[in-house]
Design a protein that fits this description.
This protein has a domain of about 100 residues: P-loop containing nucleotide triphosphate hydrolases (Rossmann fold), CATH 3.40.50. Strands 1-7-6-2-5-4-3 form a seven-stranded mixed beta sheet, covered by helices on one side. It contains five helices and seven strands. By secondary structure, it is α/β, with parallel strands linked by helices. Helix 1 crosses helix 2.
């Protein structure tokens, strides 16, 4: 893994600025898959929401916690936002047919809680792969965010 960005954010505005930097990196790829790592409440969904807005999504961007996946389109590109937190087993990814979306070279994906799916499932995602790791910082609202190419 190669580190592309390593920054601390302190508030909503600095997180939005970082989301713009990440979007610039993602826009260099025709198709990508982003795996987000971080604990509950770390800000994974917020960061994905900001990146999707930067990619042109104008509709409401909601958390896929209970639906597992939300799909969006903007500027003739398609995006899927997965949340695997509630998967009952690593094989549920295949049982629910998610590989059809993940493997589609016309859909770029964001996946929260990727550690809940099998290594085989992780390999089924198409496009250039990135990992965003979010860790809690020392103060309230502070986060350390690293972006890697995988």
């Amino acid at each position: 893994m190669k580190t592309l960005i390593s920054k601390s954010v302190y508030d909503i505005e600095s997180t939005k600025r970082l989301a713009k930097e990440i979007t610039k990196i993602l826009n260099q790829s025709k198709n990508f898959s982003v795996f987000l790592e971080g604990g509950l409440g770390a800000g994974k969904t917020f960061l994905v929401r900001e990146i999707l807005k930067n990619l042109g999504i104008e509709s409401t961007i909601s958390s896929p916690t209970y639906t597992y996946v939300n799909e969006y389109s903007a500027n003739k590109k398609d995006y899927a936002h997965f949340d695997f937190y509630r998967l009952k087993s690593p094989d549920s990814f295949f049982q629910k047919g998610f590989e059809e979306i993940a493997d589609d070279k016309n859909i770029s994906c964001f996946s929260e809680w990727i550690d809940k799916v099998s290594t085989q499932a992780q390999k089924s995602f198409s496009g250039e792969k990135f990992c965003i790791r979010i860790e809690f910082g020392a103060g309230v609202g502070m986060r350390k965010i690293k972006v890697f190419s995988v």
